[in-house]
Amino acid sequence: MSDPMRPPVSHHHPQGTSLRSGTSGPRASLRTAVVWEVLKEALDRQVKATGRESLDVLDTGGGSGKFAVPVAALGHRVTVVDPSPNALFALERRAAEAGVADRVTGVQGDVHGLFDVVERGAYDAVLCHGVLEYVDDPAEGVRNVAGALRDTGVLSLLAAGVGGAVLARALAGHFTEARHALSDPAGRWGEGDPVPRRFSAEQLTGLVQDGGLRVGSVHGVRVFADLVPGVLVDTEPGALDALIKLEAAAAEQPAFHAVATQLHVLGEKG
Ligand SMILES: C[S@@+](CC[C@H](N)C(=O)[O-])C[C@H]1O[C@@H](n2cnc3c(N)ncnc32)[C@H](O)[C@@H]1O
């Protein structure tokens, strides 16, 4: 059975590296498997609830279409709003290569000016993955993405978790940076931190509720994947699958939300 979010396994990790980097191969599947499963189930529920096979999906800050293109491959119509022309160009190419160009529309825009470029209340599902970290006002951002939903729509929100960054810095021996991230209001580990803002599960669920949505589920994403040396996964037969299953099991448990690299919240309307 082929899964668009699980590219074929490759075995080229230098010894001793963690599974954090890389955009394809096992690292990519490890990073996206939990989100993809939750999202796919949510879209299936929307199909049943609406009675429509083809949903209208908005991917805010969808970038080059890492999620948008596989969602379109399920048969849905996807609009990607992103401020970056380069990302939109890459999206167009990715959609064409996947044979879904007719179902993917790229629009240059911003979550803050979302309704300058898309219609309010017009989407069955809205994705906002890895974007809230970078926007000027996360509360306004979530209100806007929620405002794009139809009365029974669903929001898929993914953002960096503060606890995961603390743990990763500490395990890399950067103890002062880890302590900085722990007490910093934005969850940053220092001046050199490329991520402007991280969130706790409570902050994200609070934003979703303030946006007028119910919290359907919370998942911790990449609890172990960024910490495990790549060599452990490469050398042991079946280790990658076992780690993916472990990630899926831990994702559901609130205790692990506190140390996940990313947090996924499903918001439901209606
Ligand atoms: C980390 S990437 C995530 C891309 C994609 N959502 C994914 O999961 O692969 C962040 C994306 O957010 C976009 N972005 C940054 N600021 C934004 C804003 N204010 N509104 C919408 N998108 C924004 C960037 O251009 C970039 O494509």
UniProtKB/TrEMBL annotation:
The keyword Isomerase does not apply. Pfam families: Methyltransf_12 (PF08242). Residues 58-155 form the Methyltransferase type domain. One of its GO terms (biological process) is methylation. GO terms for molecular function: methyltransferase activity. Gene3D superfamilies: Vaccinia Virus protein VP39 (3.40.50.150). The keyword Cell inner membrane does not apply. Residues 15-26 have a biased composition (Polar residues). Residues 1-26 are annotated as: Disordered. Keywords: Methyltransferase, S-adenosyl-L-methionine, Transferase. This is Methyltransferase domain-containing protein. It comes from Streptomyces indicus.
